[in-house]
Amino acid sequence: MSAIVEAFSRYLPPKVVTNEELSSLMETSDEWIQQRSGIRERRFVDAPTTTSDLAVEAARKTLGALQGKSVDAIIAATLSPDYDFPGIGVLIQAKLDLPTIPAFDLRNQCSGFLYGLELATALVQQEQYERILLVGAEVHSTGLDLSTRGRDIAVLFGDGAGSCVVSREEARATTGTGLRVLRSELHGDGAHAPKLWCEHIGSAHFPHRMDASLIEEGKCFPSMQGRKVFEHAVKRMVEVSLSVLEKEGITPEQIRFVVPHQANARINGLVAEQLGIPGERVSQTITHYGNTTAATIPIGFSHVLEEEEIHQGDYLLSCAFGSGFTWGATLLQAV
Known about the structure:
The chain contains eleven helices and 13 strands. By secondary structure, the chain is of the alpha+beta class.
């Protein structure tokens, strides 16, 4: 039984923050940021907008494409929930006024959407559900150290959301382009967790999870060993992509479009080069949106399906790498 991914939608908050604007807050420049990451601008929310608010805006567009058909579960991926608990799944459900369907929350950071897609695919193939709303959403801007101390991380991230529906093939809810999930492969290696993490707030710390000193010392903000993460990301995304293609008997030349996680334009360029896929067949939304973590892949698919000529039978590949470390790839085919 096949799973079909359809009705990709995105929502980006209207506030655009350019590299020049960040340079007024920290010692940086447009040239430095673009050379380092490929980013020119990103979106930031205005108060009191939350992660679930962004998710709901994207989800409304997805649900509006379903021709009156309903979803019977929600999977929400984020590293930036509205609250410590509960997760955003039930908040999305309440704001959309959906019935008492189950709401799953995933914390697989940059790989969150692919982890959610794996879960949704398994659940519909097992006939547990007919249609699952899958959302990736982030509000990074309120959790960044927007000073020179935090610039290596702060310049990379933006806010946004993307969504889609994963359906059993016979329960397809739209007449537009759908993507059949052919194969996915996921991995994790927690030995590298300190190389990319936000150490505080958490139950690992005693006697209290948070105090004023952690804010003063900047320990409540994300940290990253950039070179190590860069090297691991390229290696793992190429490995897992080739593995998925080989298991399906597909060559890189047959891939119509690659929709990778948007952490760094240079990472995506190297992954494409090592896969032997021309750069013009690789989604690059990072230029205008920055890294929106769990939202980058559904945002990317929404652009590709709107702007590129995708025909029935075309293969699309998605891959991701992020904190954990976690990584994965999914091969899809247009139907």
